[in-house]
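Final report, Chapter 2: Outcomes

The project's central promise was a pipeline that accepts a single protein chain and returns its three-dimensional structure in a standardized token representation, suitable for archiving and comparison. That pipeline is now operational. To close this chapter, we reproduce one record exactly as it appears in the project archive, with the input sequence first and the structure output second.
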Amino acid sequence: MTDNIEIIGIRSQEQSLYFQSDYVPLISFKNKAQKDEAENYIILEVCDFFTHILKLDIPVVQNQLAYPHIITNKDFTTKDIKYFYEFLFHDLGERETDGKLKVNIKWGITFDEECAPIQVAKRHVHPKTKKVQLEYLDSRIGRPRLPYRSHVPDLQYLPYRRYGTIDINGNPIFYYIYFTLQEILDAIKQIPT
């Protein structure tokens, strides 16, 4: 390898202080309009995911775990329990008026497929054979890849979204919502130049 090739940048030491994981990439854009468009796209997609796919009513904007605080599967064995209490469990003691624990579901984005092993499927009945099939995104080589969701009206993308969870007693308290870099790029390409 040649030392003078510059393909990918490195997080500065100062930026690394804010990131909880060594395996979460720093994503940056050229200007604020691109950043805002990417974030607006993510918020719209996450709202749609919780509302229409999971049928959960959560305050999406307030319950987002900041991107630098996201950890990956590899971090679970190295993170001190203090991380989990500070970022995920800090509000688990809140109670509803009836005394039950208040569920404060949090979410964050990930570009790591290992953090999002669950694939949303759509039930499909073949018109001729009446056989029921599941259509889903499958990223294995040689499998059909269905496109991600898009708000572009001309395209008929299906509402598939990969996700993963962190659970307590079988109840999700955190959702990893998987995005591809391509769909983020497609969103910022919609900005007029």
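Archive annotation: Strands lie at 106-110, 118-119, 121-125, 132-136, 162-168, 171-178.
This record, like all others produced under the grant, will remain available to the consortium after the project formally closes.
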